[in-house]
């Protein structure tokens, strides 16, 4: 099972994670999952995109923050 991921809203994602002198670097990452439903004799699958902010700072472990919002998959 995957480790837990902190979920941040869009307004929190736009706020800085650390002070400017901490040298924190963040990159946006994307993960596509598939949501499938069984209908009759067929499976109907549609993609579901999830967005993560992957942040690293010197001397600290990397952290992932989910920044998926309601408009990501519209």
- In terms of DSSP E residues, the strand content is over 45%
* Strands ordered across the widest β-sheet: 1-4-3-2
How many domain modules? 1
The topology string of helices and strands comes to: EHEEE
Q: Report the strand count.
A: 4
Number of helices: 1
| Major sheet size, sense and barrel closure | 4 strands, mixed
Helix content: under 10%
What's the end-to-end separation, in Å? 28 Å
Spans of at least 5 consecutive residues whose pLDDT stays below 50 are none
Summarize the structure.
This protein has 74 residues and is mostly beta strands. It has 1 helix and 4 strands, in the order E-H-E-E-E. It has a 4-stranded mixed beta sheet with strand order 1-4-3-2, with no helix packed on it.
Walk me through this protein's architecture:
This is SOM1-like protein. InterPro entries: Mitochondr_Som1. The chain has one helix at residues 10-14; strands at 6-7, 25-39, 42-56, 63-66. It has a four-stranded mixed sheet, with no helix packed on it. The radius of gyration is 16 Å and the shape is elongated. The mean pLDDT is 78. The protein has one domain (6-66). The chain has one helix and four strands, in the order βαβββ. The longest helix is centred in the first third of the chain and has 5 residues, at 10-14. The protein has 74 residues and is mainly beta.
Which secondary structure elements does this structure contain, and how are they paired or packed?
Layout: E1 6-7, H1 10-14, E2 25-39, E3 42-56, E4 63-66
Parallel strand pairs: 1-4
Antiparallel strand pairs: 2-3, 3-4
């Amino acid at each position: 099972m995957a480790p837990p991921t902190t979920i941040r809203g869009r307004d929190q994602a736009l706020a800085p994670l650390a002070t400017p002198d901490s040298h924190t670097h963040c990159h946006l990452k994307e993960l596509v999952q598939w949501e499938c439903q069984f209908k009759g004799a067929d499976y109907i699958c549609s993609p579901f995109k999830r967005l993560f902010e992957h942040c690293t700072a010197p001397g600290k472990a990397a952290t992932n923050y989910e920044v998926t919002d309601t408009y990501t998959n519209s």
